[in-house]
TrEMBL record:
Subunit note: Interacts with DPYSL2, PRDX1, YWHAB, YWHAG, HSP70 and HSP90.
Function: Plays a role as a glutathione (GSH)-dependent antioxidant. May be involved in a redox-related process. May play a role in the myopathies of selenium deficiency.
GO molecular function terms attached to this record: antioxidant activity
Biological classification of the source: Eukaryota, Metazoa, Chordata, Craniata, Vertebrata
Name of the protein in its database record: Selenoprotein W
Location within or outside the cell: Cytoplasm
This protein's GO CC annotations: cytosol
GO biological process entries: erythrocyte differentiation; response to lipopolysaccharide; response to stress
Keyword Oxidoreductase: no
PANTHER family for the chain: SELENOPROTEIN W
Pfam families attached to this UniProt entry: Rdx (PF10262)
Length: 87
């Protein structure tokens, strides 16, 4: 079963380039192992929130910004690897 990864982003960015870029990087890193979905908010929010298996891992609203550095991406990779290891 694929691990759910959900990204909520501000609808003003739809289609959100940052989401599409992150989705591709995660799919390349974990081919066939993730179920990645993106959802634009109904109004402008400034959101870019990433949840792995229901747990919030990255939050622009809480100061993380976009997933725009290798260290931010590796934080997601580590969370995904841990969730996959738990089954």
């Amino acid at each position: 079963m694929a691990l759910p990864v959900r990204v909520v982003y501000c609808r003003d960015l739809s289609p959100c380039f940052q989401y599409l870029q992150l989705k591709k990087k995660l799919e390349d890193e974990f081919p066939g192992r993730l179920d990645i979905c993106g959802e634009g908010t109904p109004q402008a929010t400034g959101f870019f929130e990433v949840m792995v298996a229901g747990k919030l891992i990255h939050s622009k609203k809480k100061g993380d910004g976009y997933v725009d550095t290798e260290s931010k991406f590796l934080k997601l990779v580590a969370a995904i690897k841990a969730a996959l290891a738990q089954g």
